[in-house]
Amino acid sequence: MEPQELEHEAQSAIAAASGLTELDDVRVRYLGRKSELKQALRGVRDRETGMALNALRERLEAALEARREALVRAEREQVLAQDGIDVTLPGEPVPRGRLHLLTQVRREIEDIFVGLGYEVWDGDEVTPVWYSFDALTTDPGHPSRLPSETFYLDDDTVLRPHTSSDQIRAMESRRPPLYLIAPGRCFRRDTPDATHSPTFLQFECLAVDRGITLADLQGTVLHFFRALFGPEREVRMRTSYFPFTEPSVEFDVTCFICGGAGCAVCKHSGWIEMGGAGVVDPGVFENVGYDPEEWSGFAFGLGIERIAMLRHGLPDLRAFWENDLRVLAQF
Q1: What is the rounded CA–CA span in Å between residue 331 and residue 319?
Q2: What pTM value is reported for the model?
Q3: CB 166 within 8 A of CB 301
Q4: Which of 2, 25, 57, 168 has a beta carbon 3.0–4.6 Å from 135's, enabling a disulfide?
């Protein structure tokens, strides 16, 4: 076969090879020891013919190498397409988790009070009736003691209905002065709806020292709400009744949505009701061994879900517990 015909046939076979095994067969056929080209090279008798045949051999070797690289590249791309991963490409960003909104609010509350010199008290979710009711001078006939309102584990043990029980634990274990907040989970027999849940988060603030008055309570609450909702907030107090404080008050904060002008959030009053507070009742001090003639104090408690709802305009607290990322990812 003439060299030109041999080259044309070999180049066509190389181009038609669809895999590395088939390409190796083509190499053996046209460049192997028994190939027509090798036999021709062995019988060369003149310089010109030898140079022409060697040039043909080099062209075929180059064509084989180029085809081999193309087949390897095609095979690699096929594997990558099947696996769906190319480690040489920039990676896709992995969504990162974040703290739950209620955890964010809780930590911010703790930071505000730690900045005032308070300590964070970690109480127990299961408490004796003494801590939750008796030591807080709650009347035996008070509705909050009913099994329809509170989860009883037995006659003397309940799931903590409020963080006020942590006041008693703290005062029994410490001597004044005492400044603490006690955030934690509470439990009540409430039917879940937009504003109620059988499980909720609350925090209690307690300050015990000499000479504490209602004005100290008002100043602390004002600082807290201004730090949490903005420096222009104002606080007003209204008289109320709670078994463990005397006098007792409830406090409102100027609406942080409308600035006090009136809107749907504050029911067009300009004020948002936040919670109860008061000066610690002398009977509570006597129950923990404090002398009410020497020591005085104030206490107040707030729901963390309520703070988060009001701060971010959420209409339903169940959104905090449903794990809907469309809601939680906004915060």
Answers
A1: 13
A2: 0.68
A3: no
A4: 168
